[in-house]
């Protein structure tokens, strides 16, 4: 049974590392902010979750699990929030290719300054 859990942990670490590697390659290779944000958040978070699960399987200790659960929860809470803030600031700076947007929900806020009250 221990050998099976160790094998599962090795496979999870390999898959998680590959997901983190694809996230890093995506951040370097993609050309615009939305695709870079997609590459930086989705595969990286899943890779971290898989690696944390592999660590928990490998060490088989409740204190380790108790340490890893907040790590995963904080990552799940902060990655979408930071991606949203970076994407919104890129939109405000004008560094997003607006011709590629299907729906522009922020067009009205771009015309009206935030402090104008209207």
From TrEMBL:
Family statement: Belongs to the CPA3 antiporters (TC 2.A.63) subunit G family.
Keywords per UniProt: Membrane, Transmembrane, Transmembrane helix
GO molecular function: sodium:proton antiporter activity
Domain of life of the organism encoding this protein: Bacteria
Ranges annotated as spanning the membrane: 6-28, 40-59, 65-83
Protein name as annotated: Na(+)/H(+) antiporter subunit G
NCBIfam families: CPA3_mnhG_phaG, PRK12674.1-2
Organism field: Microbacterium trichothecenolyticum
InterPro entries cross-referenced by the UniProt entry: PhaG_MnhG_YufB (IPR005133)
């Amino acid at each position: 049974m221990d050998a099976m859990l160790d094998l599962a942990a090795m496979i999870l670490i390999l898959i998680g590392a590959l997901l983190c590697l694809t996230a890093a390659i995506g951040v370097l290779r993609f050309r615009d902010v939305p695709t870079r944000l997609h590459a930086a958040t989705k595969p990286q978070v899943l890779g971290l979750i898989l690696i944390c699960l592999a660590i928990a399987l490998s060490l088989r200790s409740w204190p380790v699990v108790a340490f890893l659960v907040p790590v995963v929860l904080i990552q799940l809470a902060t990655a979408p929030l930071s991606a949203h803030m970076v994407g919104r600031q890129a939109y405000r700076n004008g560094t997003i290719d607006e011709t590629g947007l299907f729906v522009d929900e922020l067009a009205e806020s771009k015309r009206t300054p935030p402090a104008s009250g209207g």
